[in-house]
């Protein structure tokens, strides 16, 4: 499943750090964080998407506490 979320990040470097961290999460097939459009594109298997998304949200808060991802 591929879904896009609004993702408020402060700078391009923050977006790159988030993207790298999210790609390392088990179950994530692909992830893109676009600073210019303020979007997160997440690709993961349908059956585990919700649990992967929860882990993505936790990781985002740990890496960049000011980041807001609208689910």
Brief summary:
This protein has 71 residues and is an alpha+beta fold. Helices cover 38% and strands 32% of the residues.
Q: What is the general shape?
A: globular
Structural Rg? 11 Å
Tally of strands = 4
Domains (count): 1
Instruction: Estimate the helix proportion, in percent.
Output: 25-40%
Give the helix tally.
2
Q: What CATH architecture label applies?
A: 2-Layer Sandwich
The strand line-up of the biggest sheet is 2-3-1-4
Largest sheet: 4 strands, antiparallel
Structural class computed from helices and strand pairing = alpha+beta
Instruction: Please report the first level of CATH classification, the CATH class.
Output: Alpha Beta
N- to C-terminal separation?
15 Å
**Low-confidence regions:** none
Lay out the secondary structure.
Elements: E1 2-8, H1 12-23, E2 28-34, E3 39-44, H2 49-63, E4 68-70
Antiparallel strand pairs: 1-3, 1-4, 2-3
Helix pairs in contact: 1-2
Describe this structure in words.
With 71 residues, the chain is α+β, with helices and mostly antiparallel strands. It has helices at 12-23, 49-63, and strands at residues 2-8, 28-34, 39-44, 68-70. It has one domain (2-70): Alpha-Beta Plaits (2-Layer Sandwich). The protein is built from 2 helices and 4 strands, in the order βαββαβ. Strands 2-3-1-4 form a 4-stranded antiparallel sheet. The longest helix is centred in the last third of the chain and has 15 residues, at 49-63.
Short key terms for the protein model shown above:
Alpha-Beta Plaits; four-stranded antiparallel beta sheet; 38% helix
